[in-house]
UniProtKB/TrEMBL annotation:
SMART domains: CPSase_sm_chain (SM01097). InterPro entries: CarbamoylP_synth_ssu_N (IPR002474), CarbP_synth_ssu_N_sf (IPR036480), Lambda_DNA-bd_dom_sf (IPR010982), LeuA_carph_isopro_dom (IPR059216). This is Carbamoyl phosphate synthase small subunit. It holds the Pfam family CPSase_sm_chain. Residues 90-201 form the Carbamoyl-phosphate synthase small subunit N-terminal domain. It comes from the Bacteria. It comes from Nguyenibacter vanlangensis. GO terms for molecular function: DNA binding.
Length: 201
């Protein structure tokens, strides 16, 4: 069952310590209490320092909305949302801050609910350079949605890394990864992601 904002702040050592650990002021902690929500960008720090799992930060539809860690959705649930039961063939889920769950097929690194990738969801419209985008430090902490349909078509190789490690926390694509068909490919994108601990859906 999800924990309340108060119990999470208490597990972090009180408001002052929670502010210090998450890099915000005590005014932000007051706003968390007022909104009954903690912004998702702070979840990795909270999970690490409070010894919690991702499930502890998720809303529980059966509980009192005033006691959840996230606000309940204010918009109608889209048709693509599937609550607790994954559709046939689904092996991964993308959970948005409002609790919306989007199911799909996972690739790359396999993660448990406790080790889920948490980050800001953004998008890239580039036709090339998916490996460069994933390793670009400016995308640190983000889950990148690629709009181009042929992600994976050139595979992966060490020469295309922008940094020594992957900066993005994960990636989202609409279609299955394309098999590499490029002479420069040292390996497929799926294997490259798995080696680096980056999940995709």
């Amino acid at each position: 069952m999800p924990m309340t904002i108060e119990s999470i702040i208490e597990r972090l050592g009180g408001a002052d310590n929670a502010a210090r650990l998450t890099g915000v002021g005590t005014e932000a902690i007051r706003k968390w209490r007022q909104a009954r929500a903690i912004p998702a960008k702070h979840w990795p720090v909270i999970l690490r320092h409070a010894g919690l799992s991702l499930a502890d930060l998720q809303p529980d539809s059966a509980s009192d909305p005033a006691e959840t860690t996230m606000p309940q959705p204010q918009v109608p649930t889209p048709a693509v949302v599937c609550a607790d039961t994954p559709p046939d063939g689904a092996t991964a889920v993308l959970v948005l801050a409002d609790g919306t769950s989007l199911w799909g097929r996972g690739f790359g690194a396999q993660t448990s609910p406790d080790g889920a990738a948490i980050g800001e969801l953004c998008f890239s419209t580039g036709l090339t350079g998916y490996q460069e985008t994933l390793t670009d430090p400016s995308f640190a902490g983000q889950i990148i949605t690629f709009t181009f349909p042929h992600i994976g078509n050139v595979g992966a190789n060490p020469e295309d890394d922008e940094a020594a490690r992957v900066a993005a926390r994960g990636l989202v694509v609409k279609q299955d990864l394309t098999e590499p068909a490029n002479w420069r490919a040292a390996e497929g994108l799926d294997a490259w992601l798995a080696e680096r601990g980056v999940p995709g859906i």
